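Title: Request for sanity check on N-acetylneuraminate synthase prediction

Description:
We are preparing a figure and want to confirm that the structure record we downloaded matches what your pipeline produces today. Could someone re-run it with the sequence below and paste the raw structure tokens into this thread? We only need the token string, no images.
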Amino acid sequence: MKTIIIAEAGVNHNGDMDLAKKLIDEAKKAGADFVKFQTAVDCTSKYAPKAEYQKRETGADETQLEMAKKLRLKLEQHYELYEYCNSIGMSYLSTAFDIDSVHFLDSLDLPFFKIPSGEITNLPYLLEIAATKKPVVMSTGMAEMDEIATAIDILKKNGTSEITLLQCHTDYPTAMENVNLNAMLTLKNAFHLPVGLSDHSVGIEVPIAAVAMGATVIEKHFTLDRTMIGPDHKASIEPDELKAMVSAIRNIEVALGDGKKICSPAERPNIIVARKSIVAKRDIKKGEILTEENITTKRPGNGISAMKWFDVLGTKAIRDFGEDELICTE
């Protein structure tokens, strides 16, 4: 199965449409399946504080709303990005952070909705998403198992038939000891749903490992330059890393194979080279009893198999054998 790879541009465009389009270009070059942005009309009050990582990266003087307004794209700009993606053969995606944004994105006929971790406990929002009847990919950062179960139940009872759960740790960047990839398997076993990873760790090894563990969706923040000012740049990978991640994931998909344990056609010629046969340990005369003193097992494997050892021991040599010659019994 092909893993869905979402290149999360998020707000790494810094409110600049030229940067946003460059991010789309880089996601396309890297081979990602989707480039994803964030759509918000009115989701933050003037009293909302910044997260500590946001203060660290953008300063503590402004509110979260003030920061968001600088980074927010208007709906018509999102439509322009949607059209730009279509023009270059790239798939546009965006996360809705409020109900107005849900309605807008639904009008674009996107293949699924991406629910961010912060909306798992937003009942009106979940009902609006469910009403679209589209598949859902839902991140689970900050969530307890009962909160995830409740969100799933709300979605399913109100129109959502397909849900994929993403293990996520809502901290930027996520320390390796907090990634908890095994929680992805816990989600899979508990809810019997497809799973994946929304990753905020540094580097690309965690998403690659997640695919090896069965992730069906990978979401990863990327930026044009990690040194840019903004809340998410430092927790993002750059274009060359995104390309390397996509390539590695595609290789892992192939390497996972079909799970059948057989001797493949590519291996078969190496049986003769790598396996062992029963051979003369020293020169042997015709009629001599074959014992552990005069026979042994060595490569190549095109003679009597070493697994026939006890069938050969105690029999008589049917002819003279030189040292290292393959033993035959008929």
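Thanks, this matches our download. Strands lie at 4-10, 34-39, 91-96, 113-115, 136-139, 163-168, 195-199, 217-221, 277-280, 295-298.
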